[in-house]
Write a structure and sequence with these properties.
Blueprint (H helix, E strand, L loop, with lengths): L1 H5 L13 E3 L11 H5 L10 E4 L6 H6 L3 E3 L13 E5 L4 E19 L5 E16 L2 H15 L5 H14 L8 E3 L7 E3 L4
Antiparallel strand pairs: 1-2, 2-6, 3-4, 4-5, 5-6, 7-8
């Protein structure tokens, strides 16, 4: 979420300026099996939400300006059911990838700034962060090994890579948590935003 909050499209809007709705499983949270369904929506390396479908129009100019690269055939790269995907190009490593599942739309009613109900047409989105920007490195050093080990990108490695890439470019990366050495605890809450 911190990486998403730092992104800006050519329009000046960021991904979080659009309406988002978490893909909660249907049914009673206290019923048997509901919690297991969460595993399909929140994974160690990605999560699934519905986002206002207008966000997709932001990518044409962002791709033209070199801010994002489209990923050809995202279903082939482990994003089952995906129709289009765009990877941020800001850093050599740890860029956000926004993958859309265009065959999974949803409509929500939210409240407009004036207090009236507002209908929002959404599409399922799958944000994640890959280790490598380069498609060849991503395939050889991340995707292929995960196919053999059934593993996923390690959130701690992503955090470290994103932090180092941001610092090297003179930027800050300050998520709501920190990673500390095993002697003081592996993950601790922090007050940063």
């Amino acid at each position: 979420m911190t990486a998403l909050s730092e992104m800006r499209f050519p329009s000046g809007r960021g991904p979080l300026d659009y309406y988002w709705n978490i893909c909660w499983p249907a049914g009673d949270p206290n019923s048997a099996g509901w919690l297991k369904q969460i595993d399909d929506r929140f994974k160690r390396d990605r999560f699934f939400c519905y986002v206002e479908s207008g966000i997709i129009s932001e990518f044409a100019e962002a791709v033209d300006r070199g801010m994002f690269d489209p990923e050809p055939d995202p279903s082939r790269w482990g994003h089952v059911g995906a129709t289009e995907s765009y990877k941020q190009t800001q850093f050599d490593v740890a860029n956000v990838q926004l993958t859309f599942h265009g065959h999974d739309p949803a409509d929500f009613t939210t409240t407009a700034p004036d207090g009236s109900p507002r209908q929002v047409s959404c599409v399922k989105i799958e944000p994640d962060i890959d280790y490598y920007r380069d498609l060849g490195a991503h395939f050889l050093l991340e995707y292929l090994p995960h196919q053999f080990t059934k593993g996923v990108s390690d959130p701690k490695a992503v955090y470290m890579l994103r932090w180092m890439a941001a610092r090297a470019s003179g930027r800050d990366f300050d998520p709501l948590y920190t990673i500390e050495s095993a002697g003081t605890g592996t993950v601790a809450a922090a007050g940063g935003v």
